[in-house]
Specification:
Layout: E1 2-4, E2 7-11, H1 16-26, E3 30-31, H2 42-47, H3 55-58, E4 65-71, E5 77-78, H4 80-83, H5 85-91, E6 101-108, E7 110-111, E8 116-124, H6 129-139, E9 147-154, E10 157-158, E11 161-162, E12 165-172, H7 176-186, E13 197-200, H8 202-209, E14 233-241, H9 247-257, E15 264-269, E16 291-299, H10 304-320, H11 350-362, H12 365-376
Antiparallel strand pairs: 1-2, 2-6, 3-7, 4-5, 4-6, 8-12, 8-13, 9-12, 9-15, 10-11, 14-16, 15-16
Helix pairs in contact: 6-9
């Protein structure tokens, strides 16, 4: 990372953990609003519209990209000025792999307070989880932009009794007393108390989200670890909710989730300053949704029957959610790549097949992405199973 005051050039091969660590080395009051998984690569995360636990305060990573260097299909190394604004627009949320090889992004840093607050609260269905999650839909997307409240709905089985845990994980860019007072007024169902909260620095909050308990004893150097020998099997899908789910509907959903194996829903609130950027200013189109759902399943069993079990359970959850999420199209988040929503073999029907998943990922921005793709890579050299297609030749 090359520092330039309030901005920095970041190589796309770096991890988010490496980026966070290098920022911390120079300043404890600067940060970058990216994701909280330290081994994720900068290139794909940023170009796909990556987000983190400061999304409601600062928006997306792509809102802070001010320049980029890319190798195009002709082997030229281009920056923002030489590539032009159309391609620069596409690289911010459209997935850079469709257009070339991005070498680096220049990003603006954001200022964070010296003290932030984190808290976690767990509830079961016997402990008011339903009321808490229902009210969360009305509070989390509308409260102070400095507060990010994530909810995880998991489907464990305890003592052979099917149940669902609702786990709240939150970051507040401020002091504990302020957020406790705020939640007492806006969200009494949460039951937040001072004892639930921990004040710490922003870099320590990253370690907390990584599930380190005594963050003051953990050195930030752990952010540099890439964990090359750890591997699990995962399946992710995504949805967007535009209107609050009613309490009876939410109750039925929780009851159905309790019957599935190792399947969870991660609810991430939108709102706040994410909405300050127009939906067509970058390629990311979902800014005005209420919240995003990550359908999540992770397992370590390598047997094919395990794969069928856990992927099958996740697809069941996705089907159950159909009445409650966005429609026409059923929107999806690019960085949770999901081949279930369509793949492309880039044959004669390449555009039509690309439109199947492209409209879900990009909405109306798909049309501009296709035009950019056709202009900069007309022979579709940079392609993958879900890349942006070119226009059919008869329409060029």
């Amino acid at each position: 990372m090359k520092d330039d005051g309030g901005s920095a050039w970041v190589q796309t091969g770096a991890t988010l953990g490496e980026l966070f660590f290098r920022i911390w080395e120079k300043s404890e009051v600067h940060a970058f609003p990216a994701g909280i998984c330290p081994t994720v690569g900068v290139g794909g995360h940023v170009s796909g519209g990556g987000y983190g636990h400061m999304i409601r305060k600062f928006g997306l990573t792509i809102d802070y990209v001010v320049d980029a260097t890319i190798v195009d299909v002709n082997g030229r190394v281009l920056d923002r000025k030489s590539m032009g604004e159309d391609l620069f627009w596409a690289l911010r949320g459209g997935g850079a792999g469709s257009f070339g090889v991005v070498l680096a992004f220049k990003v603006k840093l954001v200022e964070v307070p010296k003290t932030v607050t984190v808290f976690r609260i767990d509830r079961t269905t016997d402990q008011n989880a339903l009321d808490m999650v229902y009210k969360w839909q009305f509070v989390a997307p509308r409260t102070d932009p400095g507060l990010f409240i994530r909810v995880l709905l998991a489907s464990p089985t305890k003592n052979k009794t099917q149940t669902v845990n609702a786990k709240v994980r939150a970051l507040y860019l401020g002091n504990a007393s302020d957020v406790v007072s705020m939640m007492a007024k806006e969200f009494p169902e949460l039951g937040l108390k001072m004892d639930d909260c921990k004040e710490m620095t922003w870099i320590q909050s990253l370690l907390w989200w990584m599930n380190y308990k005594d963050v003051e004893k953990v050195k930030p150097e752990v952010l540099l670890e890439r964990e090359p020998d750890k591997a699990k099997f995962v399946k992710r899908k995504s949805d967007y909710v535009e209107k609050e789910i009613t309490k009876p509907e939410l109750n039925r959903l929780i009851q159905q989730l309790a019957t599935l194996d190792r399947t969870g829903l991660v609810l991430n609130p939108y709102g706040g300053n994410l909405n300050a950027t127009a939906t067509n200013e970058t390629a990311f189109p979902h800014r005005h949704k209420l919240y995003k759902i990550q359908h999540s399943s992770t397992w370590s069993d390598a047997r094919p029957e395990a794969d069928r079990l856990y992927v099958g359970s996740l697809r069941t959850t996705y089907r159950i959610m159909t009445p409650f999420v966005s429609k026409n199209p059923r929107s999806a988040y690019l960085n949770y790549r999901d081949v279930d929503i369509g793949v492309n073999d880039h044959g004669k029907d390449s555009y039509r097949k690309g439109e199947n998943y492209g409209r879900k990922y990009f909405g109306e921005n798909f049309d501009r992405l296709v035009r950019v793709k056709t202009a900069v890579d007309p022979d579709n050299f940079f392609r993958n199973e879900q890349s942006i297609p070119t226009l059919p030749r008869k329409r060029r």
